[in-house]
Amino acid sequence: MPEVLQRLHSGAACVFYHQETRMYHVGIAFAGDSFQVAYYDRAGCVLSGLYNVHEHPGTLVRPIMGLSYLDDSYLGKDTSIVSRDGREFTTLGGVEIVECLSADSDILSKGTICWRCCMPGSSAQIVIKSKWRVFDPYRPKEVKLLQKATGIDGVAQLVCEDEVQHANGLPQDTLWLRDALQVPGRIAILRDHPRMELRRMAMRPFGRGLEDFVSKDELLGGFHDAIKDRGILHCDISDNNVMLRKPDEYFRSRGLLVDLDCAVFVDERTQMGPKGCSKGTHPFIACNVLNPARAEARAPWHDLESFLYVLMYICATCSGPCDTLREDFDIDDSPMGPWLAGDYEHKTRVMFGYDDAAFRAFLDELFDPYFNDLKDLVVDLRRVITRTPPFRAGHDEVCGVFERRMEARVAARGEGAAANSRKEGSPSEGSPSAGPSTGNSSAGATRGKPSAGSSAGSSSARPSASSKRKYASRDDHDGDGDSAGGQSPSRGCKDSSRPMPSIKDSRTSLSSSDDSREAALDSSPVRSSSSLRSSFSLLSSSSSDPFPSLDEFKRMPLTSQSGSAAVSSDGERDYGREEDKSRMFVQLITQPSKRRRVE
């Protein structure tokens, strides 16, 4: 039976991953003549006793018949997500779900899911974050931080937040079944199981992953803007929590910080956060925070150190713009691999023990050749960020390092363009037609000549829709949701059948030189001007604020009324025998016998 249960656990994890609206899952494990009923939710697993099929046939028939009879609301489906004509809507403001951006497949977890959504009646796009949280009688910590961060540029802004309710109107939590099982004569199964409730937040603006940068200038600009001092210790700087976006009239920052679940507002006097807090994404946590012997209080330089690790991670895993990942590369087998395995001693030795020459050799082995010109920047950042007291790094100083390097890149491109223009205008080049071409002629030759027949200003220099993988729809879009290639992104973030495209496939007219390719991207339009407009600026200019108030947002009607419950003539849902169905579901896995938990 243990092996069968393990397979059942794996199947439950797949169900949670592929079915975004799954609240819980019920399965039956068979081993020979024995069987067990298992109930899974984000707080863990509850198992029934072990029964013999021949001795307890009624015990087996009852859950099978019950699962066949009950409607979706008691089979683990989320009734706050309704479907109509292949489109899905959420009751949180009635927004349409366009696609899933990320989903957590672990059973015992927060079950975080992020959706890209469209506001009803407009083209404005928001992100809805669904997460199971340990019950808080007041308000979740992240909501409080987002409310305090209102108006801070470069930080995700809260639009609306609410709890998800069951079909019977009660909050969607993990205690309803466990409470029903607490009767005399049974082992208490609530021990060590926290009460978790499902809540959803609508946030703006909409950003793209760091891997989706279109040029190194955009990547460095995003880091520069995200690093600015905002009086917040994020405490979970990672590749998933730093995003890129195109500035508009509402948001000037090119970098965007999301997920403030671990964040704290620093003490204005000491600029320090809590001590002994080691939360975060392990590979990007600062060395002294990971070291149990030091256990330093969180401080701004720890977040700055995490930013450096994120930049190194991007330079190691990507081989070009537009989400072009390195081929035949495994980060676990790279020089950075021990960091992902939790070896903070190795990380400390590299970051604090190596001199500049040794650290440069480490980067030579780690970085993709496309990022060779960023190694000097990383060396400078390490020199500033890893300084010991009393000369600790500050936000302004780190931003200054980025600014100097970005200015140097612009100056180098200008010199290269001037030299190339003189070279093309020289009669020694051959025919008189060898002079500068019309239009955007020098763009593709800024730092290297393009291949024959290419023109950096031509449409062939633009990345096609096929060159984007999982972040294709995280860019700004037109009102109809079309991407740059004119194709509406398919919903779901788990399409493993799509091949990993190479950047070369969509830029066949560019030179194989990395510098030439980037120069062409920097100077040529990557997408049509309409597709790059911020979705929030597409609203009527007569409105000073494109977003509704909290009360207006929650009063917005649903576009669809389809669901598991019937709709009466007066518009109210009729759930009928909800109480009877609740009792029936509890009976599915309720027997006066021994019970045990699986963590």
UniProtKB/TrEMBL annotation:
PANTHER family: FUNK1 11 (PTHR38248:SF2), FUNK1 6 (PTHR38248). Residues 558-567 have a biased composition (Polar residues). It comes from Schizophyllum commune (strain H4-8 / FGSC 9210) (Split gill fungus). Residues 5-315 form the Fungal-type protein kinase domain. Residues 570-583 have a biased composition (Basic and acidic residues). Residues 427-437, 447-466, 521-550 have a biased composition (Low complexity). Pfam families: Pkinase_fungal. This is Fungal-type protein kinase domain-containing protein. InterPro entries: Kinase-like_dom_sf, Pkinase_fungal. Gene3D superfamilies: Transferase(Phosphotransferase) domain 1. Residues 413-599 are annotated as: Disordered. Coiled coil: none annotated.
